[in-house]
Design brief:
The protein is an alpha/beta fold. The protein folds into two domains: 40 residues; 192 residues, Glycosidases (TIM Barrel). 40% of the residues lie in helices and 21% in strands. The longest helix has 39 residues. The chain is globular, with a radius of gyration of 24 Å.
């Protein structure tokens, strides 16, 4: 009887191990499908005909003609960062994107620790004053709590408005504000500065700014043949 009981217990143990292995394999398969989708998904071109990329020097060499072939119609290029930083790939990317037939816009990356006039001067030096460029975009990230000198929330809003005005004066077009979810949660620029918005959320439409977006980074890790590294894929509201 004892041997029979041990045999049944062993059979139950083997059955449980088999079930656990099957569950593990199913989980791995689901994770693999999600990973593939997260690297290859983008919104429907039927719903969003205008699509493109956001490119900076960290993306390496980008074949903009391939972006065009994939259905891209525009490219936003990081140009300046804060008061001194400049994207080393901007000039080459600008020429290559134009040669591929893409509409092109310039991006300034906001630094909450730097005065607005210095940041605007950096953008003006970095970006040519050409009417053919798309409206400039200001990428809003970071937190003033980490600045060497304290910067109040009111000061952030004031400096940002100065920066917007000066960049618009150079570009001759209204700027687009691109707050990350964390920046918007902290400073609420979407409800305080009346400019078009560029929001970000992978695989699902964002709504964290309380207003409709005009541009949406729909996949920040889209794997394509256009570059060795994943690209940030962006769509425009129709």
């Amino acid at each position: 009887m004892a041997r029979k009981g041990r045999r049944k217990a062993g059979q139950r143990g083997a059955w449980m191990r088999a079930v656990l292995v099957l569950l593990l394999l199913a989980g791995l398969a689901a994770a693999g499908r999600w990973y593939w989708q997260s690297r290859h998904w983008r919104p429907s071109e039927t719903r969003y005909p205008e699509q493109g990329v956001l490119v900076g020097e960290d993306d390496g060499t980008v074949r903009f003609e391939v972006v065009k072939g994939l259905g891209g119609s525009f490219a936003y290029l990081e140009a300046s960062r804060g008061a001194k930083g400049r994207d080393r790939g901007f000039t080459a990317n600008l020429a290559a994107a134009r040669a591929a037939g893409l509409a092109v816009g310039a991006v300034h990356v906001f630094d909450p620790c730097s005065p607005a006039d210095r940041q605007a001067a950096n953008f003006v030096i970095s970006v040519p004053r050409e009417r053919s460029l798309l409206p400039p975009a200001i990428l809003l990230d970071g937190d003033a709590e980490f600045c060497p000198q304290p910067v109040s929330e009111a000061a952030i809003q004031s400096e940002l408005m100065v920066l917007v005005n000066q960049i618009e004066a150079h570009a001759g077009k209204p700027a687009i504000l691109a707050p990350t979810p964390d920046f918007e949660r902290r400073y609420r620029v979407g409800g305080r500065i009346e400019r078009n918005l560029w929001l970000s959320r992978d695989l699902a439409e964002p709504g964290y700014a309380g207003r409709p977006w005009i541009l949406w980074t729909a996949n920040s890790h889209w794997q394509t043949d256009a570059a060795a590294r994943p690209l940030r894929w962006v769509v425009a509201r129709p």
